[in-house]
């Protein structure tokens, strides 16, 4: 079953502020019954599925995925990222001008990105993972008491 145009408007309005009553009013439902219509719409499986899908899309857009983070760290490490800084220059007679300049990120920031990448790929390990069996050897070195 597909959404009607009014139900789709309701869903899109609901996603703005997550207020079912107000979404129903803005979508064109009666103001008198909006406090019942809104929650009733949310209980319909087709509407719930549409809203869940749209919320998942928003989450995917807002939250960086692992490969995006890795690409950013790699670009930072390689010095491909710039940042804006304010530079103040003297113009003479005690006056100065400020302007914004793009500059490469600092060596410290590049090193931090390399460190984070190294940790991700376990290039620097403080602990050593050892697997295997170690045999237990019993030694009878306790002297006999006579």
From TrEMBL:
InterPro entries: SPP1-like_terminase (IPR052404), Terminase_Gp1_N_sf (IPR038713), Terminase_ssu (IPR005335). It comes from the Bacteria. It holds the Pfam family Terminase_2. Keywords: Viral genome packaging, Viral release from host cell. One of its GO terms (biological process) is chromosome organization. Gene3D superfamilies: 6.10.140.2160, Terminase, small subunit, N-terminal DNA-binding domain, HTH motif. This is Terminase small subunit. It comes from Zhenpiania hominis.
